[in-house]
Design a protein that fits this description.
Elements (H helix, E strand, L loop, with lengths): L1 E4 L4 E5 L3 E7 L5 E8 L3 H9 L31 E5 L2 E2 L4 E8 L4 E8 L4 E9 L5 E10 L8 E6 L2 E5 L5 E7 L7 E6 L3 E7 L8 E9 L10 E6 L5 E7 L5 E7 L7 E3 L4 E3 L3 E6 L2 H17 L10 E3 L1 H4 L5 H14 L3 E4 L29 H9 L3 E6 L3 E2 L4 H5 L19 E2 L5 H17 L4 E4 L19 H19 L4 E4 L9 H4 L4 E3 L6 H14 L5 E5 L14 H8 L3 E4 L8 H23 L1 E6 L5 E8 L2 E10 L19 E4 L5 E3 H6 L9 E11 L1
Parallel strand pairs: 23-24, 23-32, 24-25, 25-28, 28-29, 29-30, 30-31, 31-32
Antiparallel strand pairs: 1-2, 2-3, 3-4, 5-6, 5-11, 7-8, 8-9, 9-10, 10-21, 10-22, 11-20, 12-19, 13-14, 13-16, 15-18, 16-17, 17-22, 18-19, 26-27, 33-34, 34-35, 35-38, 36-37, 36-38
The structure holds (2R,3S,4R,5S)-2-(hydroxymethyl)piperidine-3,4,5-triol.
Length: 701
């Protein structure tokens, strides 16, 4: 709901439990008023009427108070908007008008800079059933043909302002390849804390998300938490500024540097990604559940449907693949109850190793003499869906595509082309490249009965040049828009096909890609113990419904050689969208039989896991950890014990989200427990030794 007050210059957005207010002063300054629990319009007007404290000498009266910070004038904080025309840099804007679109729950505030002839619109959206505020910014060159272009050096999506408190703690998700989404919380000190990626993709190093709690007072289930998350799959930046007077502002948008996003010609416009914000009084867990609910309702396509159990060939066969071997794996997978069989890298072109074939998206005739059709048919006959791996944005120099079009890759004329994993990046900003990829992928999906596409991206941008283009910097944003456009077009043309976002594991996980894909590959690290920490971090923002997790071989082949039981591996991977990635041809009959039971159990609990409310009962930190899911009268607990010490029994795990007055039957033990007992005394897991794990199902009786 959006209300207008203050004589027309104050707006109050109200969501499920929270509110957000801003106002336009008589001097046409757009100031932040409130972000937190629900307020009445009268409360917001009271805030607007409060006299402002005079600024300290040398400080600006605007800094820390504005809804969106343009460059220039009395401002010393990081600008959200930095633009220039040949003679003038920065912005002096004037308010043009407001539009409240009640149907879309959207508030639009329009400004203009008459010197640059630039229209600037700030967008806000808050739905009645959510506490997420979506914010984004659009720019439009409103000049006439012949007017100079407006060079956009930086255009953040939004600036978030936190209330004055004694201090703040910052939570972030950091990592690298095979070690993504690791949660760290630390006190916020004065200055700027900058997270981001200058790599062309979201990156393994940081998820575009921050969470702040005042005075470090929030716990998993109590206290105020502010979160901000960006929906952009290219280079990005979130800057958390702890200002001299103790205020905190958080700016975020596309691009890492302030050195140039794009150049707008008269009539052209730019829409920033969405930078979403959330206030929750429910601690870190409450904030996560709110983010999850919003993504399932508003972001992830078709999120009401659960995802199938998949098999992926990568860890089993690497590049060394062929049709008979894939058929053998498919038969074993089907016997386990797998529902989707995915052939990973190596099915196309001359791709027998990572040095050749990327770009040539036709089946390798030696490996698949009849194309992919016969294998797909067998997979379908076995009752499974059929999926393939692609990496469309890349090319190996050793490929027919590169030999035909060396000019299609990002490069600077006369400079070496840096290779990572023997590959170069195609310039998706070019319409001819996009059209070629569309034809290839559309042909692939039309030519064989493919139900699922794993879309990978295995290197960062390095030589992001675009010879002949007047403003090559726009390549960075245009690449992402090109990717989004391709995915949108493919989804529209092949609505039955599901897509997985992968980037060497979790290098491209953000709200932007999640609005176009059905799930993401969380990490190339499939060690079930490391995964607990990765999944704990991932769940801070994203729901289990999109988090792919595979059971692979023991000892772990990818990373560390750790041995773990099938039980531990399954219970770890069952916390998300279960997959199997081991070499099933080497699994014993006993292992296959056990795996069949685990898959059957997962199918029973997956609706609760994938679509339920998630409670992180105990974080993985060396001992006992547990995560719980609640949906209606059903609940599932996944418990993991890393190591038992001194023979001590792990403590009971206190459950959440149950009705204390109700009784719950535990399917595993047959015992009936009072909800109040499970909530207060807790659940005895009985786990012991090293790397033990268990699943507990509860049903309200
Ligand atoms: C990186 C992915 O994360 C892996 O799962 C696999 O698909 C390889 N690429 C294939 O090259």
């Amino acid at each position: 709901m959006i209300e207008t007050g203050g004589g027309g210059g104050l707006w109050l957005l109200t969501g499920r439990t929270s509110g957000y207010a801003l106002h336009l002063t008589d001097r046409a300054e757009l100031l932040h008023l409130h972000w937190g629990p629900r307020l009445t319009l009268a409360d917001a007007e009271e805030l607007a009427a409060e006299p402002q404290r005079p600024p300290w000498p040398f400080e600006s009266p605007l800094d820390g108070r504005e809804e969106y910070v343009v460059e220039g004038g009395p401002r010393f904080v990081r600008p959200a908007l930095s633009v220039r025309t040949p003679d003038v840099r920065g912005t002096q804007w004037r308010f043009e008008g407001v539009r409240v679109d009640a149907d879309a729950d959207e508030l639009r505030l329009r400004f203009t800079d008459p010197v640059h002839r630039l229209g600037i619109t700030l967008h806000y959206r808050m739905r009645d059933d959510s506490d997420v505020v979506e914010r984004w910014t659009t720019l439009r060159h409103e000049g006439a043909p012949g007017d100079p272009h407006v060079e956009v050096l930086r255009a953040d999506a939004a600036v978030w302002t936190l209330p004055a408190r004694d201090g703040w703690r910052l939570g972030q998700l950091h990592g690298r390849w095979a070690a993504e989404s690791r949660l760290v919380r630390s006190p916020l000190t004065p200055g700027d804390k900058v997270l981001g990626s200058r790599r062309g993709h979201t990156g393994h190093q940081h998820l575009p998300w921050v969470a702040l709690d005042a005075e470090g007072a929030a716990t998993e289930e109590s206290g105020e938490v502010y979160g901000c998350a960006l929906g952009w799959s290219g280079s990005w930046r979130i800057a958390v500024q702890h200002l001299p007077d103790g205020g905190v502002q958080i700016g975020g948008g596309a691009g890492y540097d302030d050195s140039g996003l794009l150049s707008l010609a008269p009539g052209e416009s730019y829409t920033s990604p969405v930078f979403a914000g959330l206030w929750s009084a429910g601690g870190f867990g409450g904030a996560s559940r709110e983010w999850h609910a919003w993504q399932l309702a508003r972001v992830v396509p078709d999120a009401g449907r659960t995802r199938p159990v998949l098999f992926n060939s990568w860890e089993a066969t690497g590049f060394d693949i062929g049709e008979p071997q894939q058929r053998a794996l498919a038969r074993r997978a089907a016997a386990l109850g797998v529902e989707l069989f995915v052939v990973d890298d190596g099915w196309f072109g001359a791709r027998t190793h990572d040095g050749a074939g990327l770009g040539d998206w036709t089946p390798n005739p030696d490996r698949f003499p009849g194309g992919l059709g016969p294998l797909a048919d067998e997979v379908h006959a076995l009752g499974m869906e059929f999926g393939i791996w692609v990496e469309p944005e890349m090319v190996n120099p050793d490929s027919a595509l590169y030999r035909a079009h060396p000019e299609w890759v990002q490069h600077h004329p006369g400079r070496a082309r840096t290779e990572f994993r023997n590959q170069l990046v195609l310039n998706l900003a070019r319409p001819d490249v996009r059209e070629h990829l569309w034809e290839q992928l559309d042909g692939l999906l039309s030519g064989a009965p493919v139900d699922y596409v794993k879309w990978d991206f295995n290197r960062c941008f390095t030589d992001a040049g675009w010879p002949g283009e007047a403003y090559p910097a726009r390549l960075w944003t245009a690449h992402v828009h090109g990717l989004y456009g391709l995915l949108d077009r493919l989804r529209a043309a092949h609505p039955r096909v599901a897509f997985e976002s992968c980037s060497g594991g979790g290098g491209r996980i953000d709200l932007g890609i999640l609005s176009r894909t059905d799930q993401v590959w969380t990490s190339d690290n499939t060690d079930p113990l490391d995964r607990l920490a990765i999944q704990h971090g991932f769940s801070q923002l994203h729901p289990a419904r999109v988090m792919a997790a595979w059971v692979t071989d023991s000892p772990n082949t990818q990373l560390n050689g750790r041995r773990s039981s099938l039980r531990f591996r399954f219970v770890s991977a069952m916390a998300g969208v279960l997959g199997i990635g081991g070499d099933l041809t080497r699994w014993s009959e006993a292992e296959l039989a056990e795996a069949r039971d685990w898959v059957a159990l997962y199918k029973e609990i997956r609706e609760v896991v994938q679509l339920g409310a998630q409670y992180r009962l105990r974080a993985p930190s060396g001992g006992l950890s547990a995560v719980q899911y609640v949906r209606g009268g059903e609940s599932v607990v996944l418990a993991h014990l890393q190591a038992q010490h001194h023979g001590e029994r792990p403590p009971p795990v206190r459950l959440r989200g149950l009705d204390p007055a109700a009784a719950y039957r535990c399917e595993e033990t047959g015992a009936v427990h009072g909800g109040a007992v499970l909530l207060h005394r807790g659940l005895e897991t009985g786990l012991r030794g090293d790397l033990d794990a268990a699943v507990f199902r509860f049903r309200r009786v």
